[in-house]
Specification:
Elements lengths: L2 H27 L1 E6 L2 E6 L4 E6 L1 H4 L9 H34 L9
Length: 111
């Protein structure tokens, strides 16, 4: 492989790396929604939880009018908190294991 080919490969690798970073940034800003049985959950393109909305029908399908707004808000808050705590614990564990593997060296996109 001559020097010109080596430079082309390096430029292509940099171009790919730039495109990957742009795509990751776009996905981080994107919002995705899952819907099931009167519950709507939103996350970003990295899979990070954003919000949850629960309908009165999801709580009491037989008599949704019996469910007050404060109950729904309280449930959304406690579920959101639990999801955020679990996500944070998972992220911390993954980062700790990646640091152990890489010897503390930060590798973009990995840790």
């Amino acid at each position: 492989m001559n020097m010109g080919q080596m430079m082309q490969m390096m430029q292509k690798a940099q171009s790919i790396q730039k495109k990957l970073k742009e795509t990751q940034d776009e996905l981080a800003e994107a919002e995705f929604e899952g819907v099931s049985g009167g519950v709507v959950v939103k996350c970003n393109g990295k899979g990070n939880f954003k919000s949850i909305k629960i309908s009165k029908e999801a709580i009491n399908p037989e008599k949704p009018e019996s469910v007050d707004d404060d109950t729904i808000e309280m449930l959304e808050d406690v579920i959101s908190t639990a999801i955020l705590q679990a996500t944070e614990k998972a992220t911390q564990e993954m980062e700790a294991k990646m640091r152990a593997i890489t010897g503390g060296i930060s590798i973009p996109g990995i840790c």
